[in-house]
Amino acid sequence: MISINSNELIALIAAFMWPLTRILGFIAIAPPFGNNGVPVRVKIALGVFLSLIVAPSIPPLNNVDPLSITGIAVLMQQLIIGLAMGFIVRVIFAGVEMAGEVIGLTMGLGFATFYDPQTRGRSSAISQFLVIITTLLFLSLNVHLAMFEALINSFKNIPISTSLNMGFSVQRLAIWGEEIFKIGMLLSMPLVAALLITNIALGILTRAAPQLNIFGIGFPITIMVGFLMLTMILPYLMLPLENIFQHSVDTINNLGSSPTSSPMRKP
Asked: Could you state, in order of their start, the residue ranges of all structural domains in the chain?
């Protein structure tokens, strides 16, 4: 007959609860899992399933009561680590949204906004379109599986401990925030350059023929050129986005180590 005392039961609960907290923190913020359209039951079921896989391989923390101050500190520590890893994925989609905002404003579609359930704010139509394309590539390239693999490997790179040091490099995480601007400029630069040339041509045309109504012909031309350029660059978005995805996976895997002189490489 199998008998389990209270101490063993507490140890089993703690061994499952701490990895579950880190995994749920990641799922809660990382797109597309953290989208409000994904049911909460699905998120919790996915977190529980992954925790059941990870928990047996995690070394137990002896003499740590989950309801003690130390246990609660470990719980909050795992939540912060999971949110930090989810933030790395969120930055990618924030950069894509920034690229769409820049493109939309340059085209003259700044007024075409929609409600974004992910950020609970307004975003342009071009941003929504690029985010959908990025999400489809994210899933079709199995990047979500690579993210889960990096999350599971993080329990080896950043083990669960009672130390006050959370185990991951805050500096590396802060530096990763600049990727929002790098991704936004990388994806929007071709269209911004094309629209800049278009506006220069319209300015020259206006000076040559002042009787032309620049406001009457300028906006349709810039919108047409913007959509034409967007159609032309769509087939070439896969390679830069694939590099960005790989860069984010590498960042999650290396989050437990301090950055060197220049950890960021061009995506």
From this structure: 6-253
